[in-house]
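Translate sequence into structure tokens.
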Amino acid sequence: MGSWRAYLVWSTGLLAYLVGVMHRTSFGVAGLDAAERFGATPAVLSGFVVLQLLVYASLQVPTGVLLDRFGAKALVLAGALLMAAGQATLALATSLPLAIAARVLVGAGDAFTFISVLSVLNAWFPARRVPVLTQLTGLLGQIGQVLSAVPLAAILHGPGWTPAFLAAAGLGVLSALAVLAVFRESPPGSPVRPDAPTPREVLDGLRSSWREPGTRLGFFTHMGTQFSGTVFGLLWGVPYLVAGQGVRQGTASALLTLLVAVGIVAGPLFGTFTARHPFRRSYLVIGVIVLTAATWTVVLLIPPPVPLWLLVVLVVVLALGPPGSMVGFDYARTFNPSRRQGTAVGIVNVGGFSASLVLALVVGLVLSVLGGYTPAAFRAAWAVQYVLWAIALVGIVVMRAQARRNLRDAGTVVPTLREFVRERRGRA
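Result follows.
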């Protein structure tokens, strides 16, 4: 394990996820073009992404069950082909219903990909490497957002809508071929996959995963850290920067690229911290949420346009959300037995994307009610985030207490923060 072959398998899965992120975020750079092509209001435009996220979130638990039943390769391959079909459909769509159906296909394929790629890490790598590789998978996959922000946007604003989305579909087909040729769930000689669980066993596993406080801690972790940056990059970031802050289109694309670059740097640092200090993971998560809320507060209190340097700071802080959300998957991994980790990871993944679809929808509704893409309307729309952050923080604190109590009852020593600090000082 950990050989060149393991890294080749992981890299192939990472490629499929990276292309999936490009598919997911492609509508973010095409939002204003889509509004013109389909005659869509802000509320209807948000409906595209909300429906995509709704499909994604609603399929997370079923995907976890399917993963435990059929394995990662089948799901990653199916996901790549579904997303390619969705992008090809969108490329040719001239009516609103067909365009919406295309984004549904993208959401369904996207749902199959990420947790399936994560599931192979335990089989191919030593446990000590898994937290860092989980972070790298999530963060390197965000390079797909750069593909949306730069080359896809260049094709969109050059040759046009149809060539841009047909190119995206073609890249999706290439990633599917790579998965078919290279991707494997486990090394040769690994134990044969157990018999598929019965429907009753599936329901029992789902209940057991949800009842585990560690799973719910992961759910609220993913929820609180992920939604702000996701909605910014997926749909409303470019319209907000261009129409709400007066930033040029090229500068907005550069800021989305910065969002990805900072996340890639932060991811391994977060993964290393998580692996070394498993009882301090929640402090990292809470810090990310508080810092994100505080930065948005400063930006929203200043009448637009705010200084460009402050928008850069906002983007840098938003970039910490994705690596923070990866900690939620680490909770699912460490608090659940291997037989139901797919289901637990699926539950965790629902958290952030459910919050994202709520925010994406509400932002669109607020913009429509307050007159469209105006600076004042955007300031009011982004304020909805505070409700979601409050819910997530309460959930993290409550579930952390329950999870630690269960660990102590089972005989695990859980040091307090004061004991942790004292120990670190002693080592220094």
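Note: Residues 133 and 322 are 14 Å apart (CA to CA).
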